[in-house]
Design goal:
By secondary structure, this protein is of the alpha+beta class. Helix content is about 40%, strand content about 20%. A hairpin with a 2-residue loop joins strand 18 and strand 19. The C terminus is likely disordered.
């Protein structure tokens, strides 16, 4: 470990540009203190943003520390004190922090995530979400958000701060075992470090390599499809069977425009192998058709999803083929916090890009990933009731409940929600 490694990593990332504006998200912890100072050293036009949620003892001391640090370093500091809604406070705080950064940044804004954070993220996602995507970890850049320290560890950032005489604050919630990330950090990752001291760097390096290799895999898919006639042309099954299984699956995924499991890929490669024609329903209106050795995909025109409806709390509402009720907790499929829900919730259909914070997972997931993980049939996904409260997804019927809206044991005000499929309405009903 070198006291200069954090500087070297940030410089090599290319994410901090001399003379360009950069807003550093400054908590007062060692990682963000290091990032602020390193950005100055690399010549960026730096400002800092500190968000004081006033939720725990020491929050005002954190703010005072950031003020003193920025005054010492000659950096402009923006302080925000947002009011957070009830529910999952960690999730709401994270969302507020990024929203404020988007508002205040004149160019990019930087988070001080390190290789240690990357390792925790990969391990957690791997445990709850199968597939390569779980191993890709956090991106160095996502829109205007940049992470220049992703290849430096927490030990590196602390070494920089000590060498520069820069004090930092410790957040006690980082050691709170109630949070999944804390259990990964102090349990699983600590155990891995005992046998492999470089565990964090190794996991983070694996994620970085896989992100680079993802581009190579997509190039290989492009080449195969170009050789076979293009994405929209029928695919010759004989040539597909000659490909390595992984490459064949990637090609078929691209052509289908949908994720495919290993079992589905194998079925597609065998489809119609006895001659003539055959078809396979892949759900969600997607169908594979094999005709005389060629495979093509068709997608039936889906019926429009039901129109959104309002569900009073308590009360009932009809959404497409579903009847939803809000009432006493004992009668509900799930029990939610009545205060967080409010007097009326909105019931709508799934939309591309929808995300929620499922209870117990400690982070956000797309509904697409939740549907895949929980094996929700494709043809059902567009009609499932999605219950929205205060602009956030509170519950997806039969799939997941939000951490923010879940009622705590013994909560003074709770409401039960249920959804029952009752069939299609007749015209005029």
């Amino acid at each position: 470990m070198s006291e200069r490694r954090a500087l070297e990593v940030a410089s090599a990332s290319g994410l901090i540009v001399a003379g360009h504006p950069l807003l550093v998200m400054l908590s007062g912890g060692a990682d963000s203190v290091c990032l602020l100072d390193v950005a100055r050293e690399l010549g960026a036009d730096v400002r800092a943003l500190h968000v004081n949620y006033r939720l725990r003892p020491g929050a005002d001391e954190d703010e005072a520390h950031c003020r003193a640090l920025c005054e010492r370093l000659g950096v402009e500091l923006i302080v925000e004190r947002p009011e957070l809604p009830p529910g999952n406070v960690q999730a709401a705080a994270r969302e507020a922090r990024y929203a404020l950064a988007e508002r205040h940044a004149e160019g990019d804004y930087a988070a001080a995530h390190t290789a240690s954070d990357q390792a925790e993220t990969v391990l957690y996602r791997l445990a709850v979400s199968p597939g390569r995507r779980a191993l890709l970890g956090m991106e160095p850049r996502r829109g205007r958000l940049v992470r220049p320290l992703l290849e430096a560890t927490r030990e590196d950032t602390r070494a920089w701060c000590r060498a520069r005489g820069l004090p930092w604050r410790e957040d006690p919630s980082n050691a709170d075992p109630r949070f999944a990330r804390s259990r990964v950090r102090h349990g699983l990752l600590a155990a891995l470090r005992e046998g492999a001291p470089a565990a964090e760097r190794t996991i983070a390096e694996t994620a970085a390599q896989l992100r680079e290799e993802e581009a190579v895999l997509q190039d290989a898919v492009d080449e195969v499809l170009a050789r076979l006639g293009g994405e929209d042309a029928p695919l010759p099954q004989r040539e597909l069977r000659e490909l390595r299984p992984g490459l064949a699956r990637l090609v078929l995924r691209r052509a289908a425009g949908a994720p495919l499991s290993r079992a589905e890929t194998e079925a597609l490669l065998r489809l119609g192998e006895r001659g003539g024609s055959a078809s396979l329903d892949l759900g969600g209106g997607l169908r594979a058709v094999a005709e005389y050795g060629y495979l093509r995909f068709t997608r039936a025109r889906e019926a429009p999803p039901p129109d959104p409806v309002l569900l009073p709390v308590p009360g009932a509402a009809r959404f497409g083929d579903w009847e939803l009720r809000a009432g006493p907790p004992a009668e509900g499929e799930v029990v939610l916090d009545a205060a967080a829900l409010g007097a009326v919730v909105r019931v709508r259909a799934w939309r591309e890009g929808d995300r929620m914070r499922p209870a117990g997972l400690g982070g956000t997931k797309t509904l697409q990933d939740l549907f895949t993980d929980r094996k929700v049939p494709r043809e059902l996904r567009r009609t499932l009731p999605v219950v929205e409260a205060q602009g956030e997804i509170a519950w997806v019927a039969g799939v997941a409940v939000s951490e923010r809206f879940r009622a705590a044991p013994g909560a003074p005000r709770a409401v039960g929600l249920s959804a029952r499929r009752v069939g299609r309405r007749r015209p005029g009903e």
